[in-house]
Amino acid sequence: APPDAAAASTMLGRFSLPRRTVTVLKGESLLNDAVALLIFATAVGWAQDGSLEKLAPEVALAVPGGLLLGYLTARAYIVLSRPLDGTLGGTIASFAGTFTVWVIADRLHLSAILAVVANAMTLAHHVPYRQRARDRVNTYAVWGTVVFLLNVLAFLLTGLQARSILSHLGDGQLDRALAFAGTVLAVVVGVRLVWVMLYNRLVNLIARWGWYDQPPSLAQGLVVSWCGMRGLVTLATALALPEGFPERDLIVLCALAVVLGTLVAQGLTLGPLIRLLRFPADDSLSQDLTFARGALLDAALASLEDKDGDGARLMREIYERDRAAISSGRHPREASETAQLRRETIAAKRRALANLRRGGRIDDDVFHTLEQELDWAELAAALPDELELAES
Question: pTM score, two decimals?
Answer without folding.
Answer: 0.71
